[in-house]
């Protein structure tokens, strides 16, 4: 069995902004060494996150940038290897990266469907897989956490592909939890509702298919039944608990964080 390092090591995908950034900062505050991932175009934002960790953490943390397209298996392999080489292993994987495109089913294209599945579902699978392989090799257990959504618990307007991908994360999480339990690895997911992030509240760029000034809440019909959006820190706090040793008995769960808009 591999020796446990002085600090556990976390890898967070989609960490240049929003929920991923909040998780990275919280885990660093909790004393973990942190690798932050996003697309190569987000390198500058990732470097700012690393600088914030190094200047505002409790002290002694290591942090690094690990750019990769998580829908690419080769990229995920290279990313994982770089984190292992620079930080010494992986104890926590937070597969947070995601992509949002809003359209009615009859207006959806196969290209957009495939892109959402590649990032949200295949990317999560690859993140789980290569982190799990390293955790098994290390022999000291681990924590794997994925990003589902309220749309992965209950369908909504204009989000058939997105919802299908997030329902898929739930199934993937349950299967991985069963398979990895014998290695002392827990696997869970969070299912956010309205969180004040650029993807949900300001998705006006053309690639997400939304008109300028339109929020995802308006398009999905959730605006009237949704409380004011929460800060990304509510998700970071949940992740902080799930990676703690005392959370060993929680696995296979996709936990709602939605202000009561969707119940299991």
Automatic annotation (TrEMBL):
Protein's UniProt name: Meso-butanediol dehydrogenase/(S,S)-butanediol dehydrogenase/diacetyl reductase
Family to which this protein belongs: Belongs to the short-chain dehydrogenases/reductases (SDR) family.
PANTHER family: DEHYDROGENASES, SHORT CHAIN, ESTRADIOL 17-BETA-DEHYDROGENASE 8-RELATED
UniProt keyword DNA-binding, yes or no: no
Presence of the UniProt keyword NADP in the record: yes
Keywords: NADP, Oxidoreductase
Source organism, top-level taxon: Eukaryota
Source organism: Rhodofomes roseus
